[in-house]
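Internal tracking record. Fields below are filled automatically when a chain is submitted to the structure queue. Please do not edit lines marked as system-generated. If the sequence contains nonstandard residues, flag them in the REMARKS field before resubmitting.
Queue: standard
Priority: normal
Entity type: single polypeptide chain
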Amino acid sequence: MTKRKPLNDKIRQAVVARDGSVCQICGSKLDTTGREVDEMTNRAIVKYHIDHIKPVREGGTDEMSNLRLSCVPCNLVRNCKHGRYSGNAMIRPLPPR
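SYSTEM-GENERATED OUTPUT FOLLOWS
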């Protein structure tokens, strides 16, 4: 299995801006500013996820229309609970283009 490339910063920043730093699943406001590092492990602290609405493994793409901002708990619970594309609709509709 080939490892896919992570989303680039430009796309990540565009999703954060479009979604207004709000989790598109539960509606909570997210801290999307800067990066913090755990002093014990020297690893980045993940504050939010860029979620594929339809997973790449099921044919989803990295297009903006298939990406949404998600808090870590919502994205992890969604992935663990369903183990696959759950069909969850976005709570907040995308702004018109």
